[in-house]
């Protein structure tokens, strides 16, 4: 079952104008392009936040580390 969620966004006027123009040129809705932009970048944002969390854990001395040589050997990339 697909659940639709309504989301209201305030965009700077210049971005709104660009989005309007793109929608007019292509015959697609502004919502389509907003949804596409969110989906395109959501994975990247999640990766960034995970990397920041792991970096903080590393700085606190938490978690395991692996040397580059060990990592390469593990995946059969060693000479």
TrEMBL record:
Main subcellular location: cytoplasm
Pfam families attached to this UniProt entry: TraY
GO biological process terms held by the UniProt record: regulation of DNA-templated transcription
GO molecular function: DNA binding
Keywords linked to the UniProt accession: Conjugation, Cytoplasm, DNA-binding
GO CC annotation: cytoplasm
Cellular compartments annotated: Cytoplasm
Family: Belongs to the TraY family.
Protein name: Relaxosome protein TraY
Organism encoding this protein: Rhizobium freirei PRF 81
